[in-house]
């Protein structure tokens, strides 16, 4: 077996010859009786893969011609370090293989007769295998960065497609990635040639491109005929004719007759990257504006031209921070693009694009990417220093925008990227906003990401209060499990139990009661939850609060007791519930001391409430000054049905006031005879 010699200094031909020899050598050793068959077999397989990569490198160097957009010298420079590493690894493998090769004239170890061979340096061989694999993958990665359209051989297809399928077992180093980017950016990508143009028609295009760029002071020719020919050639996609006309220095900025469309804009609108490249190089005005105020760069990005073409426009001097009529730059459209796998964002930013430039709506490219669910673009913009806390005109950050879109994956992604979770925006924090828009999944994501469960908004609306208002039982349970305070005071002194009563949320009241929430806390206006429920007519909430022991005789400062307010407001069902709950019915009112609740009910003709009071055992002959019983008030107000109800309930008709006047005397003295007949019948 021939020795490869000093591999680091050997040529490409020596490497291609040595790699298969080592593959055969290690394959033979792996099939013998030894202690490291797996390692030896892996080395043999890797040497075969190295052979394929080296042959592919040689093939590309021989078949790729020098063009305007690709230089084979760049391929040699990019792959130099990877080739040196491969050569070093192969040299080491050749050295160690000589120590364990089968019995020959220069080896004292016989492995052909069943003798077990101890591979004493297996750890070293494994390390070399890892290094060789990394070097080979780096080389293969760089070769994959060379687009196949630059290969001119007609028999390259099978080899190219089979060789480009490289399984990645480890990460490529940043240095190699940068070299790959240089190779990719050295080309403008595929050039679709229309059927109307034969291959022979454009055989001389690449050689002519060197002369397309006009020299300073060049005067362009302009005539209706040649301008029409140029526009017609672009419409046909005839690259050869376009190049021919441009080499004749036909004005690349002349619009077609009767139109304002320039050659470059025509090529862009028809998505012809090759022709657009020719026209741009030939001196087209890159800052010419379309109908929407688009420059050539903005149009190229909006129409998803490749990152190579965008890079070319930037190199030709296109303004990367120019904006259209909406104030959007090329970076805005790149951030919104559905094509997130190219390097357009990186190209624009490296060319000087303002990563936080705002459009007329106040959007930065990052906010535009968020509004369009572009996860990869968001990540790349953040890597380039985009401000994650930039705000729209309405104050919303990217996180608040994602919440308004009700996108749980997007909120989780932004949280992982470091979005500030407790920022107050308008009336909300992120957590209270998620609760307000009825997104418990988002609320859960925010809580798990570390949002403060007791952090209030600018108006004192804290998460537990917001969840109570929304009736979000799931989020309530989550917040309570994370230690949210039941006694945290919101706007106007509201606690969660006040809000639950306000919104008639019985299930929330039940959860708060089980969580040991206070039942009768006071607001800034001295109201209890039961008082609030009564004022708003929330019968179910009031009934539950009464059942769990709420104070049914509470009176806010300067106000009557709850029962009196319920009667006056006509909340009959709540008044009846208060009666059944044991409300005081015989103590005089604060403002009208001549009345008790039973007197007030009789005066207002609240028969259902009176019936409930009778069942509760109220004294129907309770007197107030000047000695009037409820019957006096019912009769005075003319409530015949109420009078009948009181009489049926046991009220004494002959009761007299302190002035010794009875009901009949009071009616006669007041000339009020509406109920006289009824009273005479009762006599």
From TrEMBL:
Keyword annotations of the record: ANK repeat, Repeat
Placement of ANK repeats on the sequence: 292-325, 326-360, 361-393, 394-426, 459-491, 492-524, 525-557, 593-625, 626-658
Repeat is among the record's keywords: yes
Matches recorded under PROSITE patterns: ANK_REP_REGION, ANK_REPEAT
SUPFAM superfamilies: Ankyrin repeat
Pfam families, A to Z: Ank_2
Protein name in the entry: Ankyrin repeat domain-containing protein 17
Organism, as annotated: Colletotrichum fructicola (strain Nara gc5)
């Amino acid at each position: 077996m021939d020795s490869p010699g000093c591999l680091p200094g050997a040529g490409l031909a020596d490497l291609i010859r040595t790699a298969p020899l080592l593959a055969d050598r290690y394959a033979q050793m792996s099939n013998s009786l030894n202690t490291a068959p797996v390692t030896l077999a892996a080395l043999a397989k890797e040497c075969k893969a190295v052979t394929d990569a080296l042959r592919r490198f040689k093939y590309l160097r021989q078949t790729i011609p020098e063009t305007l957009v690709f230089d084979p010298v760049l391929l040699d420079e990019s792959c130099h370090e990877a080739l040196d590493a491969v050569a070093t690894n192969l040299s080491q493998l050749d050295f160690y293989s000589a120590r364990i090769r089968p019995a020959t004239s220069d080896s004292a170890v016989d492995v052909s007769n069943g003798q077990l061979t101890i591979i004493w340096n297996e750890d070293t061989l494994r390390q070399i295998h890892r290094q060789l694999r990394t070097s080979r993958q780096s080389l293969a990665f760089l070769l994959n960065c060379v687009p196949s359209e630059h290969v001119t051989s007609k028999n390259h297809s099978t080899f190219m497609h089979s060789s480009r399928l490289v399984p990645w077992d480890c990460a490529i180093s940043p240095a190699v990635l940068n070299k790959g980017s240089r190779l990719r950016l050295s080309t403008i990508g595929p050039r679709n040639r229309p059927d109307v143009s034969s291959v022979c028609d454009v055989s001389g295009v690449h050689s002519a491109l060197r002369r397309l760029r006009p020299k300073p002071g060049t005067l362009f020719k302009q005539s209706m005929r040649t301008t029409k020919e140029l526009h017609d050639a672009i419409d046909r996609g005839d690259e050869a004719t376009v190049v021919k006309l441009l080499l004749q220095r036909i004005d690349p900025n002349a619009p077609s007759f009767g139109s304002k469309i320039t050659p470059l804009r025509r090529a862009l609108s028809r998505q012809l990257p090759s022709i657009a490249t020719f026209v741009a190089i030939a001196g087209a005005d890159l800052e010419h504006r379309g109908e929407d105020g688009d420059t050539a760069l903005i149009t190229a990005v909006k129409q998803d031209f490749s990152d190579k073409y965008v890079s070319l426009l930037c190199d030709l001097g296109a303004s990367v921070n120019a904006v259209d009529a909406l104030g959007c730059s090329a970076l805005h459209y790149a951030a919104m693009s559905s094509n997130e796998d190219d390097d357009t964002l990186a190209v624009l930013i490296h060319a000087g694009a303002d990563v936080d430039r705002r459009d007329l709506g106040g959007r930065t490219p990052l906010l535009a990417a968020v509004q369009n669910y572009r996860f990869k673009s968001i990540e790349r913009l953040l890597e380039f220093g985009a401000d994650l806390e930039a705000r729209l005109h309405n104050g919303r950050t990217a996180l608040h925008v994602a919440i308004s879109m009700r996108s749980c994956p997007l909120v989780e992604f932004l949280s992982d990227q470091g979005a500030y979770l407790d920022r107050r925006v308008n009336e909300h924090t992120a957590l209270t906003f998620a609760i307000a828009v009825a997104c418990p999944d988002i609320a859960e994501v925010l809580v798990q990401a570390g949002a403060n469960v007791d952090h209030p908004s600018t108006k004192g609306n804290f998460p537990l209060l917001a969840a109570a208002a929304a009736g979000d039982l799931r989020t309530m349970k989550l917040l309570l499990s994370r230690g949210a305070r039941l006694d945290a005071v919101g706007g106007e002194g509201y606690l969660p139990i006040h809000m639950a009563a306000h919104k008639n949320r019985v299930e929330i009241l039940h959860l708060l009661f089980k969580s040991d929430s206070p039942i009768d806390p006071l607001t800034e206006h001295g109201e209890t939850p039961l008082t609030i429920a009564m004022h708003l007519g929330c019968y179910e909430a009031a009934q539950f609060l009464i059942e769990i022991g709420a104070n049914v005789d509470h009176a806010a400062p300067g106000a009557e007791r709850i029962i009196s307010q319920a009667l006056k407001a006509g909340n009959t069902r709540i008044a009846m519930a208060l009666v059944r709950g044991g409300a005081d019915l015989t103590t005089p009112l604060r403002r009208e001391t001549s009345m008790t609740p039973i007197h007030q009910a009789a005066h207002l003709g609240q028969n259902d409430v009176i019936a409930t009071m009778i069942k509760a055992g109220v004294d129907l002959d309770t007197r107030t000054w000047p000695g009037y019983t409820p019957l006096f008030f019912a009769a005075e107000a003319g409530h015949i049905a109420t009078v009948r109800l009181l009489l049926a309930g046991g009220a004494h008709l002959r009761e007299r006031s302190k002035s010794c006047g009875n009901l009949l005397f009071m009616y006669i003295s007041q000339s009020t005879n509406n109920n006289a007949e009824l009273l005479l019948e009762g006599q």
